[in-house]
Amino acid sequence: EIVLTQSPTTTAASPGEKVTITCLASSSVSNMYWYQQKSGASPKLLIYSTSSLASGVPDRFSGSGSGTSYSLTINTMEAEDAATYYCQQWSSNPPFTFGSGTKLEIK
Amino acid sequence: QVQLKESGPGLVQPSQTLSLTCTVSGFSLTSYNVHWVRQPPGKGLEWMGVIWSGGNTDYNSALKPRLSISRDTSKSQVFLTMNSLQTEDTGIYYCNRNRGYYWGQGVMVTVSS
Question: What residues of B are in contact with residue A42 (Cβ under 8 Å)?
Answer without folding.
Answer: 94, 103-106
